[in-house]
Amino acid sequence: MNKQNKKIAQEKRRIEREKAEKKAKVVNLLKFWVPVVAVVVVVIVLIWAVATSGGSSSKGTDGTEAASQTTESQASGTQSSDSQTEAATLNTETDTVAENGDKVNIDYTGYMDGEKFEGGSTDGQGTDLVLGSGSYIDGFEDGVVGHKVGETFDLNLKFPDDYKTNTELAGKDVTFEVTLNGVYK
Predict the structure, then answer these.
(1) pLDDT truncated to tens, each residue of the chain (185 aa)?
(2) What is the C-alpha radius of gyration for the chain, rounded to an integer number of angstroms?
């Protein structure tokens, strides 16, 4: 009987070792895959958040874009430019002149027929813009080029006939009162 008890005890230990090995494999897999899945979920949430926010900082209080017509390709160009100028500081010296390709900070208010139009203002919050990025209606960015920091000026522009963001503005003449707050250098 002693030999039989010994064999039974050995079999139990073997089964316990196999269970422990299987458990160790599962734990190792979880140690790898849980963080990977967590990162994937975070990335998906961030992509969703950016996609649903519209990616533009020039929105009015009703969520309509004023002069901004950012497309996905333009947004990605602006994002890469943002990462390049992240370390840059906002230069507010009044002798600084805005040039094409500069990242600037501006405030603006849009007027149609002498009246402010909804969604056409930064409401004094300022917004960053890369001059030459094509993210605003034709003439807006070119109209900022050449102005000095601290200057307030008017841009007389026309929204495109096919402007889809706010069809009430499509094809309309507007004036933007713009203040150049600074240039990132």
Answers:
(1) 677 888 888 888 889 999 999 998 888 888 888 888 888 999 999 888 888 775 444 444 333 444 444 333 334 444 444 444 456 899 888 899 999 999 999 999 999 999 998 888 999 999 999 999 999 999 999 999 999 999 999 999 999 999 888 888 999 999 999 999 999 98
(2) 29
CA distance 49 to 134: 23
- Sign of the alpha-carbon dihedral angle for 156, 161, 165, 169: positive
What is the spatial distance between Cα 143 and Cα 120, in angstroms, rounded to a whole number?
Answer: 16
CA distances from 159 to 2, 15, 41, 54, 154 (A): 97, 77, 40, 20, 15
Q: Tell me how far apart the alpha carbons of residues 136 and 131 are, in angstroms, rounded to a whole number.
A: 9
Q: 137: which residues sit within 8 A by CB, 6+ positions away?
A: 67, 69, 157, 158, 159, 160, 163
* Residue 55, CA distances (Å) to 13, 26, 82, 133, 137 in order: 61, 41, 13, 14, 16
* pTM as predicted: 0.55
Phi, psi of 16 (to 5 degrees): -65, -40
C-beta separation of 82 from 70 below 8 A: no
Number of CB atoms found within 10 A of residue 176's CB:
24
